[in-house]
User: Which sequence fits this backbone?
């Protein structure tokens, strides 16, 4: 179903898809924290309500950023996974992480942020490699709730 856009501006379109409080955090958890299940997203430490998480996962699926896969033989359990369109958000998330740690107090480890900034292309290549190989080992730690 095609949505009517506010404008043709790429920034405006991107914000319509991702500009809420939770969507990019869900993408982050899929991309670099190894989350795959609803329960893992809820345990990510951000405090997202289950109804909000359900809505964001559904919206991210509708716009082609997230897909689901059947988990094992059960058929009722699902694992979430980024699509190609979703993994293409890696540079944006990296830039947001670096920007936020530079300009605001955060609990992101300084050495990790420096490495990300210094070897941006290497970090992005590792994110993409893990996605392709379905390596769900966390790449970045959970950050403390208070800086």
Assistant:
């Amino acid at each position: 179903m095609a949505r009517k856009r506010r404008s043709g501006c790429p920034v405006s379109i991107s914000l319509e898809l991702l500009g809420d409080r939770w969507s990019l955090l869900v993408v982050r958890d899929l991309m670099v924290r190894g989350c795959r299940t609803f329960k893992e997203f809820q345990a990510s430490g951000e405090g997202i309500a289950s109804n909000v998480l359900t809505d964001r996962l559904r919206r991210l699926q509708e716009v082609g950023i997230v897909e689901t896969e059947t988990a094992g033989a059960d058929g009722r359990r699902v694992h979430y996974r980024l699509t190609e369109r979703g993994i293409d958000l890696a540079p944006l998330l990296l830039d947001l992480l670096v920007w936020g740690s530079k300009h605001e107090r955060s609990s992101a480890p300084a050495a990790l942020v420096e490495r990300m900034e210094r070897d941006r292309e290497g970090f992005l290549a590792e994110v993409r490699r893990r996605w392709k190989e379905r390596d769900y080992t966390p790449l970045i730690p959970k950050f403390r709730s208070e800086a």
In short: Residues 10-83 form a domain with the Arc Repressor Mutant, subunit A fold (CATH 1.10.10.10). Strands lie at 66-70, 78-82. The chain is about 50% helix and 5% strand. The chain has a mean pLDDT of 90.
